[in-house]
Amino acid sequence: MTLLIVPRSLPVGMFTVIAAAAFLTSTSVPASAEPSAPSHSTADNVEIILDHAEIMELPTALSTAAEPAESILADAVISDVLNERDTELSTLAAQERDVRVDIREASDSTAFGVAIVTAPMGADEDPQAWLFAAEHDNSGWDVGLEGTEEFSSLLTDSPLLDEEERESIAASTDPAQTAPTNYIGLGLPFAIGTSMVMTGGPHGDIGESLDFAGGESLARASRGGYAYSLCDGWTRVIHDNGYSTDYYHLEDYQWLPGNDVEVGHYLGSQGNSLCAGGSTTGAHIHYSLRGYTDPNAAGWYLTMDGKTLGGWTFVQGSQYDGYAYRDGVGTVYPGGLVHNYGF
Fold first, then answer.
1. Is there a contact between 65 and 12 (Cβ–Cβ < 8 Å)?
2. Is the pTM of the predicted complex or chain greater than 0.90?
């Protein structure tokens, strides 16, 4: 994948050429109209990606020769990401984490895309990603990250995406929804009626992920919804029940820019891909759960502890341990086969 990266040492004239090649324009305005916010886009650990753009018409009202339109949008997105994580770019750089702003669509003073904070390569840590929606006015960009009321509000009024997708995603990710129960109406990340080995029990910072391998080795949507490729090997499916599910390390990967998919839709195969960093010790599907209606974790990952997926209730133990149980069937520990009973 080719990235349009904004390096510190790139001469202004050369960047203007690159920006023009990406179907963007940049015009100068008086200094009084320039944004006062700090520029994040020139940091060494920042990447601006335009490769996946379907529509690219960014407003140029705040552009300058030194900071083109896409950089100003990226600055606003990065500011929200840093606020959400309560951190600074320099701190992320010290942790060997990059920030990527992947602008997917921009038109009529609105934008939509993906923001990623990578994990250190080779480290047993997870990356983080959000869809974002943005709206531009004379004072700059107003940005909402997935899982916030602002995201849902901006997306509802946006001309981007088709109407059904836009309204469904806005409603599904609205934190004002009624909080769900531990029965969440989700299967497992492989075909209903088949089995895979649970190679890793609940793990991550709060036990929000499970690892599966073997069986047919194919990752499939655990419920219908809208599927978004975050990078090559990482898919998020936003469901209609206040949750989304992530599928990472995939190979033979299907690129999905917001497709309406059914339960069981093919996403890729188990693999070792690391498009946003982290590590693997063998081909598998890294499966995670995000919630939008939990006020303590809106738009963030949720623990698997006590959650029922695929007919099994998962219990957290020490990192990668724990187990799953099903009444009338028994208990499965890491290394055992888990059958997907659906939901």
1. yes
2. no
